[in-house]
Amino acid sequence: MAAKDARTNIQLAESSAIIAKASKEDSAIMRTIAVETKKDSSAIKTIAILGMFFLPGTFVAVSESLFTSIYLSAKENDV
Question: What is d(CA 61, CA 36) in angstroms, rounded to the nearest whole number?
Answer without folding.
Answer: 37
